[in-house]
Amino acid sequence: MASDPEEARRVGETTLAILERTISTEKSEIIAKIFVAYGLGHLRETDFRRLSEAIDRSFVDDLKKLVKLHKVPDKSKEEFLAFLLPSGFTISVGGEQLDDFGQIYYKVTSLGNKFRTAYYVGKKHIGE
User: What is the pLDDT of residue 97?
Assistant: First the structure.
């Protein structure tokens, strides 16, 4: 970011716009952790901006539940995962076996896993 003024401008604009809209200080803290991961080189600029936008579209309690998952399930009926669909952190998947055919489950996407990883990298580096 320091070597590319255009990247710094884009990241700064995205961060400020989202922080201005955020009504939750907890969301601001989550974005700060993601920013730390970006600053340390664990995320590309586009990933940071995409994650920031996804965080903005999510309910903070659902985000907190997502990062607290010890093991990310292949498919789940957890309601908070359904609420994260608009963020892109989860997708819906149908049952594939005879006994669960027609059932709807939720799965964490690669973006959701990238969010979880970046969150913990940022958290670790700020000493939490």
Answer: 63
